[in-house]
Write a structure and sequence with these properties.
CATH topology of one domain: Methyltransferase, Cobalt-precorrin-4 Transmethylase, Domain 2
Largest sheet: 6 strands, mixed
Strand content: 15-25%
Radius of gyration: 31 Å
Oligomer: single chain
CATH architecture of one domain: 2-Layer Sandwich
Helix content: 25-40%
Shape: elongated
Distance between the termini: 97 Å
Length: 462
């Protein structure tokens, strides 16, 4: 070791003194790595007086151990620990470079202000959540789903249930393979979107008439995107009215919105959303249309004609891949083309409105302005007088009864189409109507049908 001749040292943005190693030095390590680097001199008082170390080797061991075990992500490659002699006393010099995997944080505190420090003047201070997010964005580039989630205490009950329903195994290793866990074992934003505690919400409202004036029903959906998908479709179901035309032989049912289009539109809303915007996505239901609005607009270089033709830039490719694996989507980017395909032959066509920071899809009702059927009138009275939530089945029950006034019976599949419920939820609703004496069950297994209580169903009407 050589005697160093130095200019007087002072604590500042890139310099800190420690009389001896202490836990506070770990905060300084993270602060330097998160800012512009710096040097910790151990064995020097805050005043600049060199006191030296009795056992510099032990201090080096402590510093190395702290860097390896107490800070995440791995910071070792950005640290150099050496001994020097100042004023004939031995000190330890810890040089820290600016890290490339910021933010660095104390592993026992987590990725939050209490664990993430930055340098401000001669002090190491907790970083704000905004500063932490900025570091995450800079490290992850433009990929929101790959960035580390600020929230690490996540649960995945809805995700596991969905994978089990589709007989797809979901192991601990699957989380890493799917992109939900990064190489440091931290949950990514993709994991957050699929977690039970996801707060990226969708707000839905039913307006009376064709203008945004009086709201008759509203709801906000949060939680796993799988949970949001199911609840949003349940919300929209009662507003997709069905009209029936009786011909000489066959009956033809016609919906306000082709049922597939609502599902595809909601999937598009969830999968292609720009989640860097904290504003809720919006679904507005009017008498003549349904509007779905995502904030963030289209990615650079992508136009309206591109997405109509099925060409799109992958904003959330890992999220889209998970929905694809679970058979919610057939192929990436085909949701919008399918919606336009389902409207072929109709007078009113979907429209897309694109602004610099928003994307709006408008689905027109096919029967607006026509003479309302009994089903339509009853549904309007029900939804206007009694707000319907996913837990309120009274409006759906009345739809079933109106349907049975014209038809001998109804089954689970038809109930799901009519109400917008999933088939399991439709079965539950039918069972409840049987239990309260409103309906009677006829047959077993796949042939099971339901009639109004007291109705005798002849074989030819089954």
């Amino acid at each position: 070791m050589n005697e160093q001749v130095n200019e007087p040292l002072r604590e500042g943005l890139h310099t800190e003194f420690k009389r001896e190693w202490s836990d506070s030095a770990k905060r300084t390590l993270t602060a330097f790595a998160n800012t512009d680097g710096g040097t910790i001199y151990i064995g020097i008082e805050d005043t600049g007086q060199v006191t030296g170390l009795a056992n510099p080797d032990e201090t080096m061991r402590q510093a190395t151990q702290a860097a390896a075990n107490a800070i995440r992500p791995d910071i070792i490659s950005f640290i150099s620990i050496t001994t020097e002699t100042m004023e004939r006393r031995q000190i330890v010099k810890v040089e820290v470079g600016r890290g490339t995997d910021r933010p660095y944080y104390l592993s026992d505190k987590g990725l939050r202000p209490a664990g993430v420090y930055v340098r401000s003047g001669a002090a190491s201070i907790p970083a704000s959540e905004t500063a932490i997010l900025d570091m995450i964005r800079q490290t992850s580039g433009n990929s929101f789903e790959d960035a580390v989630s600020l929230e690490q205490n996540l649960s995945f009950n809805a995700l596991r249930n969905m994978f089990e329903k589709h007989d797809i195994p979901l192991s601990d290793n699957s989380y890493r393979t799917l992109g939900m866990v990064n190489t440091d074992g931290l949950y990514t934003n993709l994991a957050w979107l699929l977690s039970d505690g996801c707060t990226a919400s969708v707000k839905a409202a039913k307006f009376q008439g064709t203008r945004k004036a009086t709201i008759s029903n509203r709801y906000e959906f949060t939680g796993s995107l799988f949970t949001q998908l199911e609840q949003i479709l349940q919300f929209l179901g009662p507003y997709n009215r069905v009209s029936s035309t009786i011909g000489p032989i066959y009956r033809k049912d016609s919906y306000d919105y082709p049922p597939v289009t609502l599902r595809e539109a909601v999937l598009n809303l969830l999968i292609h959303r720009d989640y860097t915007y904290h504003d809720s996505a919006l679904i507005s239901v009017y008498d003549d249309r349904i509007e779905l609005i995502n904030f963030g607009g289209l990615r650079k270089g992508v136009g309206k004609d591109d997405i109509i033709n099925g060409l799109s830039s992958k904003r959330n490719p890992k999220l889209a891949n998970i929905f694809y694996r679970l058979h919610f989507v057939e192929a990436y980017g085909m949701g919008i083309p399918k919606i336009f395909e389902m409207y072929e032959g109709f007078e009113r066509q979907p429209t897309i409105s694109i602004a610099s920071h928003s994307f709006k899809l408008i689905l027109p009702s096919q029967h607006y302005g026509e003479n309302e059927s009994e089903t339509s009138r009853l549904l309007n009275r029900t939804t206007a007088a009694t707000p319907t939530t996913p837990e309120d089945d009274s409006g759906r029950s009345k739809l079933i009864l109106v349907y049975l006034r014209k038809h001998a019976s109804i089954n689970r599949t038809k109930t799901a189409e009519l109400t917008g419920l999933s088939k399991p939820m439709a079965s539950r609703l039918l069972r409840s109507l049987v239990e309260n004496g409103t309906l009677e069950r006829v047959g077993k297994g796949p042939a099971t049908r339901y009639t109004t209580a007291g109705t005798v169903m002849k074989p030819e009407t089954v």
